[in-house]
Amino acid sequence: MKYVDVLIDIADSRADHIYTYSVPPPVPEKELTGRRVLVEWGKKKREGYIIRERDFIEQDITHVKPVIKILDREPVFDSKMLELAAWIAQTYLCSLVQALRLIVPRAITGKKDKVVLPNVKEEEMLSSPASFLVNKYLPFFEELWQREEISLKEARKKLGKEVLELLAREGLILVAGVYAGYKPLPGGYVYRLAGFEVKELSALRKKAPRQAEVLALLMEKGEIAAEQLEKTFARSTIEALLNKGYIKKVKKDKKIFSAPFVLTEEQERAVEMIVSRLEEGYREFLLYGVTGSGKSEIYLRAAQACIEKGKKVMVLVPEIALTRHLVEMFALRIPGIAVMHSGMTRAERYEEWKRIKNGEASLVLGTRSAVFAPLSDLGLIIVDEEQETSYKQEETPRYHAVEVARRRAQMEDALLLLGSATPSLETFHRAMEGKSELIKLSRRIGNAVMPVIYIEDMRLNLKRGPKHNLFLSDFLYNKIEDNLKRGKQCILFLNRRGYAWLTVCTECGNIVLCPHCSVGMTYHQDIKRNLCHYCNFTAPVPSLCTRCGSRYLQQIGFGTQRLEEELKRLFPGARIKRLDIDISRKREEPRNILQAMQRGEIDILIGTQMIAKGFNFPSVSLVGIVDADGMLNLPDFRAGERAFQLIVQAAGRAGRGEIPGEVVIQTYQPDNLVINLAAKQDYMSFYLEEIRLRKILNYPPFTNILRLVVSDEEEKLCQAVINELADYIGEITDAKEERIEILGPAPCPIKRLRDRFRYQLMVKCENIMLLRSIGRFIIDNKERFPSKTRIEIDINPLMTM
DNA sequence: AGCACGCCGACT
DNA sequence: GTCGGCGTGCTC
Ligand SMILES: [Zn+2]
Ligand SMILES: [Zn+2]
After folding, report:
1. Helix axes A401-412, A79-92, angle to 10 degrees
2. By its UniProt entry, which PROSITE patterns does this protein fall under (predicted)?
């Protein structure tokens, strides 16, 4: 008898459930491990993952149930990916199921050969809460119990779609099917354009529209798999084109188009350093290069070299908006790239996943979750803008894609290439310690030169009495005016969306708060309402103060909307546009704005940090950072690092083309070290200063942090639970020799969020294993606390609001 | 995570 | 004497 260990697919954060089932004959010949199955678990039928095959069962097992149905024709994960899942579960304190769900796409659709199974036993039908339904359709159920399964088609004929859906919803029946597989394209032949002139196309459109269609398609895609083309077009159409010599059928070759760009000496050296280490086992590189130094071209060359050696490449980017730029660049020179990001529909992701699994993609490009792409034979993993916080998932499993990428590279003997203009302290520290090789690009490519950067003391602006308004210094005003006169473009950054900052009563100082969160509400001009930036609750601006009844409420501070309004008043002739999250929610608008910007149809672009990243506007010659202080005053030990990165990134938007750039940083603390180092673009000094502080204050990378957040609608309950957790951890601290530091318990910086109070506890300890075991213990003992009280556990958190 | 079993209070 | 609260233990 054949047996399998099945991991039951239920989201139990406390523990995994693995049980042995028998595989009734006929046992499939191919591998079972990694396939999904349907099993009866307890009273219910559930899906599970086969994680082991065996020919015997442990002696203490009395009953073994059979596998009801094997749901996959081939495995959806291999032993390496299972190992990776186990590592995720252990490292980030989640269950194996939660980790596997990252790796195996949830394909609700795409099941074939669907059948209906009974999900209630005959002898139990009377005790079922919906037994009247069983009685109502008794003949159907009797047949179902007897035959065990009925094809969905037949069942639909008997009862109709609606009734079946009802029965399924009530848990009386189960619709199961085999996950649709993916047909590989055999032979590996493709069609390409041959001797064909574009000008012939219009003539052909009239005479032979189908042929023209094929040609247009080939012009767009470059090449099309033979199977696919032959399936969609008639044989005669294709043959006619072949006979005319317009197209050719060729074996899909691995030849890479030669790169048209000439590398600088620095780039050449960087590429050589990486490429020479391909196939030499795991190794990590940090490509540290200023904005505009041509990192993307190095990624591309390294990727090409890797693919030439027959290995696959993974490229991670921080956000969807940045995928487009790299996709365009890579797709031009590397055939068969796959794209995966969270903006795609589930079906699109699944299709792409199957292509990758099938070995049809030589390069996968995507955001955070693409780190789990089912690539085998990985030779190189590239992480662009490695310092970006979006690589960390802010819900369980709270993994960090850079760490996962490192782990995969180690498992696959591949190279890890991290790129950044402002590396995270952790990453740069690794390079300083010799854990990775530092590759430095210090010059911008082409004729672009580093911008000139000015720090403007806003205290003077305040003292003099602002000529224009509070948030625009004379200096920046004049620079903008000059810039407009010269017909150049300008970008203004303000990292605060909305119109103002807060609504305040001028008589008693009361601030209008969100009724669901402990944060002030922000007025938004477009909707003419106050908005909570944390829970998106909106409310009309109150006409009277809720505390003292005063009519004098004021909108204080300024956001991008107010900045836009004021600039339009100050520079009435200028073409001014704004781009922030609120704008980007409108469908076409962001793209239109970016394109208009590229074409020089916008004079002043106002935006939040989203325009600081990635976009390359060659004719921007002035960048204004309106409020550099706003970024510095966050309650997080990484605030300085974030501010430095953001200022440098923003400054990097200036002077990317031929035009030399200027940057104006407005601040009330012109002597602040972070601002001054950012102004000098002096990463090295910033690093040395910041790492010194981290060492003194005992923060990462010199220690690890376990963060516990307890949340509940009742504050008392929160406090009780967090105190109990603190007591428990205190006991461990006393018992251990190691240096363990406990910060808190204390309310989170945002004390209430979506009607839940939040309290946190930070445990600092160099020994990460100890932190994990503390976290694991808390998970194992969760039932000791009220179940409605949420306990979240994060190892090395990035956000601590 | 579900679900059944089982032991105590309140209510027909 | 019965209905129902949720603590405890089990799921191959
Ligand atoms: Zn008031
Ligand atoms: Zn809110």
Report:
1. 140
2. HELICASE_ATP_BIND_1, HELICASE_CTER
